[in-house]
Every structure is written in structure tokens, then in C-alpha cells.
Amino acid sequence: MKLEIADIQKIIPHRFPFLMIDRILECKPNEKLVAVKNVSINEHYFTGHFPHEQIMPGVLIVEAMAQAGCVYFYYSKNLQDKALIYYLAKIEARFHHPVIPGDRLIIEVTSVKLLPKAGFVKCKALVADKLMAEAEIGFGIKEI
After folding, report:
1. Which of 14, 49, 52, 96 is catalytic?
2. For a designed S-S bond to 34, which of 8, 26, 95, 126 qualifies (C-beta 3.0 to 4.6 A apart)?
């Protein structure tokens, strides 16, 4: 299954400038999700991080991974048509290389453990098959 930005916005409540994923290239519930974040020089955070050597902040890479994880959870737990709020519970992350304007960040998500109202996922962020960051993320959900 593939999802466009309008589909993603139906699942997670984030909007510009804090929606950190642009497209879902592949979604196999309970197996794997692959998302894309196109990193543009026009991103608002590049004016201050850092003006002469722009680098995507690590916390925003983690946020992109968490948002992709939420979409993965949504389909893996068959929550279609439910309005949810997601709460970040745990993050263990490692950063290997900087992400810069012009990069196409590919985010891969797989399950660690999925519970009825919480999930733990492993995420990798890659640029051209080069591992940029990886994380294990835990989150909870609440239906609104």
C-alpha cells in the first residue's frame, strides 16, 4: 500500500511545519513501513540550525521516524477511521551522519512489540542506502 500526503494527514494530526513525512512508499501491516521525508533548503529550521552549514536537527529526524511509526501502528492495529492522539513514551536513538538540504530521507519501520494501545518500533533513517540514524521508539495512543 502507498499513501500520499492527504492520506497521512487523515491518520496523524500534524500539519506544516511539523508534518515530517511526505509519502509512504510501502506499508505492509505488522511487517514493515517505508516513508519519505524530502529535506528542502526551505525548511524553517535551517535558518537557525545552522546558518552556514545547514543540518537537519536530530530531534526532527526522530520526529519523522515517530510519525512514520504511528502510521505503521495505525494500519497494523486496523484503526482505520479512528481519530487518535499519539504520546511519545521512549526514545533510544543513534545518529551516524548529518542530514542536509537536498537529501531524500527514507525511513524504515519494523515492529518490536505492538500492544492494543501502545507500540514499540525500530526505525532506520537512510539517504541513498547510507544509514544516517536509527532509533527504537515507544508510544501510546488515545482515541479522541
Report:
1. 49
2. 26
